[in-house]
């Protein structure tokens, strides 16, 4: 199990950059194709307008499947992929986090 720790850590570290790219694409698509929804979410962005309330609105948008109301197949596919990606990341993070106190980390 100790051999898996650096691999999982590296995958999760790389996943942060993938998540940032996915968020950027979704935010840009919402901004250009659905500006009313983008404004209702608080005009989220990766850095400049990254507040706790915007993050909550964004996670509600993903997990309550509010993207279905937009009737935009490209946003729906992207948001569905992001939901799965986030859940896999979260599970991987929990394995990593719980592995440290159990002595599985180097």
Describe how the helices and strands are arranged.
Blueprint (H helix, E strand, L loop, with lengths): L3 H30 L1 H6 L11 H12 L9 H27 L7
Helix pairs in contact: 1-4
How many distinct folded domains?
A: 1
Cα(first) to Cα(last) distance is 10 Å
Order of helices and strands: HHHH
Structural class: mainly alpha
Overall mean confidence score, pLDDT: 89
User: Which spans of ≥5 residues are poorly predicted at pLDDT below 50?
Assistant: none
Helical percentage: over 70%
The biggest sheet, with number of strands, parallel, antiparallel or mixed sense and barrel status, is: none
DSSP strand tally: 0
What is the count of DSSP helices, taking H or I runs of 4+ residues?
Answer: 4
Strand content: under 5%
Gross morphology is: elongated
**Radius of gyration, taken over Cα atoms and rounded to an integer in Å:** 16 Å
Overall description:
The protein is built from four helices and no strands. With 106 residues, the protein is mostly helical. 71% of the residues lie in helices and 0% in strands. 8% of the residues are buried. It has helices at residues 4-33, 35-40, 52-63, 73-99.
Question: What can be said about this structure in brief?
Answer:
The chain has 106 residues and is mainly α. It is built from 4 helices and no strands.
Protein traits:
106 residues; mainly alpha; 71% helix
């Amino acid at each position: 199990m100790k051999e898996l720790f650096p691999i999982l850590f590296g995958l999760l570290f790389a996943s942060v950059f993938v998540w940032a790219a996915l968020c950027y694409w979704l935010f840009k698509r919402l901004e250009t194709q659905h500006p009313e929804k983008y404004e209702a979410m608080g005009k989220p962005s990766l850095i400049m307008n990254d507040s706790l309330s915007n993050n909550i609105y964004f996670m509600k948008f993903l997990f309550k499947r509010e993207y279905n109301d937009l009737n935009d197949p490209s946003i729906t596919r992207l948001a569905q992929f992001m939901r799965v990606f986030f859940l896999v990341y979260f599970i991987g993070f929990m394995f990593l986090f719980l592995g440290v106190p159990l002595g599985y980390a180097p």
